[in-house]
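[step 3/7] fold_predict: job queued, chain A
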Amino acid sequence: MKKIILTLLFFAFATNFLFEAKLANGATHTPTSETEEINRLEKLKELIASTAAKKNLVDKKGIVGTIKDVNGTKIIASDFQNQDRIIDIDELTKFDGNTSNSFGLSDLQKGDALSFIGLFNKETERLLARFVYKVENIPFFIDAGVIEKNTSNFTINIMTSNGEEKTVNVESSTKTISFDKKEGMIKSGYSKIESGQRIIITGFKNANDDKIINASRIIHFLDLPTTSQVKKYLDLFNSDSPISTGSGKRLTPITR
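[step 4/7] structure written:
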């Protein structure tokens, strides 16, 4: 790309230099030929600007997500932050199923976990896939509140922003960090996590139970409150009576 831009710039300067040299030597010219020369230079400048803009607009990127919909050559996938991503497929896209059996666009189904690598358009926020791979599990991110800990098996019960209770497995490989405004981020541990704290978890869903999370990284906040939605559901669990979540389910307070 740099070679193309440098070549176009060289051609523009060379053309302009030759044109000025002709005028200096007294070469005759007509208003029409001068106008054509100026127009040619302007078009060349526009081409250079357009090429540079396209270079800055497109970047190489990878997206891992779960398919929500497939419409023609367009795929909508949900990434680990539950954001919808649009992936475009064309004749140059290569599929690799990581198995002896190959797969293609027609084999994709809702719920499939895939990794997409390709060219990301920053303006449209769409990815033109060049490689598509099947993956076993997708890491995801969750912002929640701590309900309680079970120290006998090193788990944490958490409440999500939509009123779901989940269990987090804290393993020896799990990296735990605490954060406060004064100290910033410092290394922490399972024993320092407390009920009511805001917690951010990056991990994987358990293959047998989607309400269990195997945590790879945990950040718990010492002085940052939970979101208003999470706080509402945490309060429900400490109240005396079940209250509707608005999703057709009713939460029952935890018995201490």
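[step 5/7] annotate
Helices lie at 2-24, 31-57, 228-237.
The radius of gyration is 29 Å.
exit 0
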